[in-house]
Specification:
Blueprint lengths: L1 H14 L6 E5 L5 E4 L13 E3 L32 E6 L4 E4 L5 E8 L7 E6 L2 E6 L4 E4 L5 E10 L5 E4 L3 E6 L15
Parallel strand pairs: 5-12
Antiparallel strand pairs: 1-2, 1-3, 4-6, 6-9, 7-8, 7-10, 10-11, 10-12
Length: 187
């Protein structure tokens, strides 16, 4: 209940304009009340107090980069061929259960991949040598835990043409080793 009261107080203070007056009073039950309406003085209650509210801080984020593709940056002489590359499977924060650690990462690219370009897998932030076959990366013996997977389209020289945002997935593998039993104390 106190959290709701505190939240409503903060929201009412933030919602007031800088020129409005805020008053603090204590009611007959000892509850502190903030309001923008001048309270009526009542006998037996302490007088209301005007509260000075400091201006609200604001933040303007810097402009974000338009693309992660270095070839499509302004002033570049080579236009980008691909308009989209994204991981479509596994979905964000999906849990995969496979005791052998087999994982399939499926990506979609638009327009379709040219024959002189390749798709490379980026697993946990590291570019691997794994290439996609028909937009699917086949992985085996992946360690259990949380991983990120993304893809890069590269040309013959290895220049990155476009890179996907990474998708996070969780791999669960059953362990045959159980917890180590605690040794019993000798009597």
């Amino acid at each position: 209940m106190r959290i709701r009261l505190a939240l409503s107080i903060v929201l009412s203070i933030l919602g007031c304009s800088a020129t409005a007056e805020i008053y603090k009073t204590v009611d007959a039950n000892g509850n502190v009340v903030f309001t923008d309406i001048a309270p009526v003085e009542r006998s037996g209650q302490p007088p209301s107090q005007a509260v000075n509210v400091q201006p609200i801080n604001s933040y303007e984020p810097p402009p974000s980069a338009q693309s992660q593709n270095p070839l499509s940056s302004p002033g570049s002489s080579v236009p980008s061929y691909y308009s989209q590359l994204e991981v479509i499977s596994p979905t964000e924060d999906e849990t995969i259960r496979d005791n052998a650690g087999n994982v399939q990462i499926e990506v979609a690219i638009s327009p379709p991949l040219r024959s002189d370009h390749r798709l490379l897998l980026v697993l946990d932030g590291t570019v691997t040598g794994v290439e996609a076959v028909n937009g699917v990366f086949e992985l085996s013996n992946v360690d259990r835990g949380t991983h990120t997977a993304g893809a890069r389209a590269v040309d013959r020289q290895g220049n990155v043409l476009i890179e996907s945002n990474p998708a996070t997935f969780n791999l669960m593998r059953v362990s045959i080793d159980g917890p180590t039993p605690m040794p019993h104390a000798a009597p």
